[in-house]
Amino acid sequence: MNPRKFLAELKRRRVYSVAITYAVVGWLLVQVVTQVFPPFEIPNWAERLVIVVIVLGFPIALVFAWVFDLTRHGLVRTEDMSSAARVDISPPANATTEKSIAVLPFNDLSAAKDHAYFGEGIAEELLGALAKVDGLRVAARRSSFWFKDREAELGEIASKLNVGHVLEGSVRRDGNRVRITAELIDACDGFTIWSETYEREMHGIFALQDEITRSIVDTLKLKLAISPSAPPRSTDAYDDYLHGLFYSDKSTEEALRRSLEFFERALKKDPQLSRAWTGIAKSWLWLADAYAPPLEAYPKVREAAVRALQLNDEEAEAHVYLAETKRILDWDLDGAEAEFNRAVEIEPNSTPSNYFIAALYAARGDRDKALAYLQRTSKIDPASLWVSNFACELYRYFGLYDEAIAAGERALQLDPTFAHYGEPSLAALYREMGRFDDAIALYKKAHDFTGRPGFGLAITYARMNRRKEALQTLEAAIVGWGYRPGDAIAHVHVVLGAHDDAIRELERACEQRSSSLHGVGIAPEFVPLRSDNRFLSILQKIGLEPEKVFAATAP
Length: 555
Fold this sequence. Notes:
This protein is α/β, with parallel strands linked by helices. The protein is 61% helix and 9% strand.
């Protein structure tokens, strides 16, 4: 280890802090001993013994600081730097002087432990407010909240999210009374630079959120040049909204449908709560394809997004969801692009804004724009399984296998079970690389967790010329999904060489309005169809320019 790295490691292990603290406390103890022992006629040898023990204890304390770390989870062995590097989930980041912060979900200290949704909701509201502050980069919700219930030190969290500050806190609800503690920590040295405890009635919760935001901005010496959002008129509606938000970030059908119930309940209490309409659009978007047929779900996404924007045109996420309906229901890619750009204009550091526009540009063959927005998304949301899995898929489409492997393995580290809506993109990458056993192992792992066979496994069997297993897996996947997603089935048929069947399924996908249909132009599995006029006609029908799309993935 060179001197610079050694000094950095001393700082990471907090050896400097222990040395300074020990020296100060030791000096104070020596002063006490030399002043107190003589009046009580304590022998000189005892005084000298205490001083010797203090001196000898200094190197022991430094060694102890190097090996162990006293954390909020107890005494733990400090992770070796090389080990930390091996499990690092964050993408490479350039050094920056910008102010940056991660907002962790606030711990629920309520007696019944039934207000986790409230702690997450408060944290998300603060995160949203801080994200609008000029000169402050805020880690996205999915990345910050990934660390919930994980025994990770603040230094590790800050390193993986590439932020200089961490905001954490706790909430305690007792009827209509709420107690909130917030603490802003400098991640470089682990010291608290601001903390406060508040007690309020629920009707004062909105003013309290603004107060915390302003305190953080003042502490970081930034300028708050935004007006606080108009609070909901009903605190009961707001409580239901936070409940809905909590469930809308879960991956199961039950949780997503439960989120709809809370959002609708909120709107009954406050019909002007635009964010509840945005929440409904979000929940239906994630129900679509995975749990509900697209033609059932996307009209509801559109209705909710439009209602949200009628109440507040500054709802960036609502613009994203409206854009998706224009892309999927209308095949209006120009209209979708305009809505995505509006979302990015309102919230340039929003994950949905950057994620969805990256996917649109990739599908249209705008490779450079797609990669630029993908990299922005990865920087904003480095600890998101959703983003990492998507990045692996997009990099694979463009033939960037090194980048795809890095993103796919990061997704695997984030969640080894692949507990998300789709399938592990890393498995598809392994298939393209001829690593069939590795691909099958990942697909089966996802199947074991979700209970739903994946189409990717059928495609893999087809690539291995195991036709019977491919068709059996395909039928099982169709039964598991509950309907026939045409583009996914077409993947299997084209690999099996059944091009007529593949075209028929793609036409079915057009009728179904499958959300992933726009990806078939750049997906390597569909290269054998590129000379088929029927395939070109389908791409043109859904708003793509075949020559431009094919050129984007040319070697």
